[in-house]
Amino acid sequence: MSGSRAEGPVVQGWCPGALRPMMSGDGLVVRVRPRSSRLTATQARGVAALSRAHGNGLIDLSARANVQLRGVTETGRLPLVEGLRDLGLIDASIAQETRRNIVVQPFHRPDDPTLTISAELAQLLALPDAPDLPGKFGFAVDTGSTRVLESTACDIRIERDGQGIVVRPDGSGLAKHVTETTAAAEALSLARWFIATGGIREGRGRMAAHLARVGLPQGFTHPTTAQGFVARPGLYDAGAMVAFTFGQMTAETLAAIAGLGDLRITPWRMIVIEGATRLPDLPGLITDPDDPLLHVVACTGAPGCVQALGPTRDLALALAPHVQGLLHVSGCAKGCAHPGAADLTLTATPQGYALIQGATAHDTPIAHHSAAALIARPDLLTE
Ligand code: SF4
C-alpha cells in the first residue's frame, strides 16, 4: 500500500465495480451499475437475495447512483458475480464496466429523450474504439423537463436547456447545442477532446480541472442558466422517492420496496419507486422531507473502512438534530461520502475531529474536537 493512514488517505483513482471489487474493513465492496440508473423489481429482489447469500446483508447507495453490496467474502465473490450476470447487471469486461459511468436523472417520462440518449451513450462506450477514460470520469444525462443533476459530480453533461438539448463540460457554464440523435456522439467527441488535449495525467483526470488549464474546445458558446434542485423524499410524477439513513439499507428493505414497483436509483442516495402514488410505511425508510437525518452525510468510517481514523455515523446521528445546513462527518480526508463542500465538515484525524466550515473534508480546519466534546456541546460546531 502506498501510504499509511498517518500519511493521509490512499487515493485509488478508480471506483470499485462488480468485476473489480474493492476490499474494505468489512469485506469486499461489490458495486453494481444499474443500466440507466434503474433496477427492475426482479433485479432488485435478486440483488437483495445475493446480498444475503454472499454479503453481510447491507446495501449502500452511492453518489453516482450505484448500488453497493458490502461484506462480500472471497469465496462468495464469484457466485455473486454469476448471480448478477443472470440478472443482466454485469458488463462484458472491466473496461466496459469502468467506462459505463453514467448517471441518469430519475424523474424521466416516457416522452422525454433521457432513456434513449443514455442507452445510446452506454452502447457507444461499450465499443472497442471508445475513449479510454480515467476511472472516475463520468457522464450525466439530465434531459427531463428540468435539470436536477447540476450538483452531481460528473465530467460531461447532456442537459435540457429550454426547448433544446446541450452538451456541457463540467466546470463551464457554456454548452453546445445538440439534438436527441447527436447528443451521445457529441458527448463522446468531447471525451476524445479531453484525452487528446492532455486531460489524463498519471491515469487520472477530471474535466473541470482540465478546462481550468486549457480552456474550452471550439463550439461551446451557448450560455446556460443554473437551475437549483434540492432532493427531498416525497411524491413526484415518476413515483415515490424514499431516502435511507446514510444511504444504507438492509437486503430486507430493498426486497420490500421492490415489492412496490421498479426502482430508479438516484445520486442523492434515495430511490424512486416507479409509479407509486403514496409513500410506503416500511421500516428503514426516510419519507419525511424534514427529517433531521437528511441534513447529515457520513461515510462508513471505522471500523468498516480500513482507511478511517475514527467512527462517523454515531457522531452524525447524535449531531443531526442540532445542524441547520449540511453536516458531513468523514472518517478521513478523502471525503468519500461528500466530495464537495458542506456547510460543516468533521474529519477524523489523529488529533480528534477537524472542524471545517463551508469547505471539503481535506480543507483547513478551524478547530479540533473530540466526539465526546461535540456531543456534549453541539454549539462547538458553530462557535
Ligand atoms: S472517507 Fe470514509 S469511506 Fe472514504 S476512505 Fe476515508 S474513512 Fe474510508
TrEMBL record:
<dbReference type="GO" id="GO:0051539">
    <property type="term" value="F:4 iron, 4 sulfur cluster binding"/>
</dbReference>
<dbReference type="InterPro" id="IPR051329">
    <property type="entry name" value="NIR_SIR_4Fe-4S"/>
</dbReference>
<dbReference type="GO" id="GO:0046872">
    <property type="term" value="F:metal ion binding"/>
</dbReference>
<keyword id="KW-0411">Iron-sulfur</keyword>
<dbReference type="InterPro" id="IPR005117">
    <property type="entry name" value="NiRdtase/SiRdtase_haem-b_fer"/>
</dbReference>
<dbReference type="InterPro" id="IPR045854">
    <property type="entry name" value="NO2/SO3_Rdtase_4Fe4S_sf"/>
</dbReference>
<dbReference type="InterPro" id="IPR006066">
    <property type="entry name" value="NO2/SO3_Rdtase_FeS/sirohaem_BS"/>
</dbReference>
<dbReference type="InterPro" id="IPR012798">
    <property type="entry name" value="Cbl_synth_CobG-like"/>
</dbReference>
<dbReference type="InterPro" id="IPR036136">
    <property type="entry name" value="Nit/Sulf_reduc_fer-like_dom_sf"/>
</dbReference>
<protein>
    <submittedName>
        <fullName>Precorrin-3B synthase</fullName>
    </submittedName>
</protein>
<dbReference type="GO" id="GO:0020037">
    <property type="term" value="F:heme binding"/>
</dbReference>
<keyword id="KW-0479">Metal-binding</keyword>
<keyword id="KW-0408">Iron</keyword>
<dbReference type="GO" id="GO:0016491">
    <property type="term" value="F:oxidoreductase activity"/>
</dbReference>
<keyword id="KW-0560">Oxidoreductase</keyword>
<feature type="domain" description="Nitrite/Sulfite reductase ferredoxin-like">
    <location>
        <begin position="21"/>
        <end position="85"/>
    </location>
</feature>
<keyword id="KW-0004">4Fe-4S</keyword>
<keyword id="KW-0349">Heme</keyword>
<dbReference type="Pfam" id="PF03460">
    <property type="entry name" value="NIR_SIR_ferr"/>
</dbReference>
